[in-house]
Amino acid sequence: MAHTAHARTVTARRIAAASLLALSAAIAGCYSTSGGFMPHTGGGFTYESTSLLPTTVTVMNACERSPDHPNGTPFFIMEIPPGKQLTFNFEEDGGDDPVKRPARMMYSLWKKGTQTGKLENVLSCPPSACRRIEVTYRPAPEQARPDESYRLQTGPDAVGPVGQPRAPKTDRPSPTSGG
Length: 179
Known about the structure:
This protein is α+β, with helices and mostly antiparallel strands and 179 residues long. The protein is built from 1 helix and 11 strands, in the order H-E-E-E-E-E-E-E-E-E-E-E. It has one helix at 2-28, and strands spanning 31-32, 45-48, 55-61, 73-79, 84-91, 103-111, 116-117, 121-125, 131-137, 151-152, 165-166.
């Protein structure tokens, strides 16, 4: 009888361990604006925009200054549409240049009030000592845009070194159409 009870205890522990492992794997790909199960200092950032307070977030490289940009060169600008939120987080490694851009910024534009999700976009960025976040507000009121798919423009169709929101791919000519 004691052997059967011991076998049930071992089986219950194995099921609990497998459940915990499955939960950990499911959570690993998600981001929580409140810090999730293990909130910490230096976590992510979330900025919301409304019709009466349309918000623009600019992340500056304060280590690169010029006469045009005495406070630093902007490397990310997002005019958050009303009714949306910009959520982003920084990882101090994984960038494309070990000196100028050693870190990564992961971000997504979500419906305002979203608490969890996957940060789908990645941008190489300067180290934490060089980053500065500026928040500004556009003239109000501003009506919400019906479009849901704003992404950072990168690659061969980028207009310049500063990432900016762009229209969805369906509104732009395809590379194969020649236009």
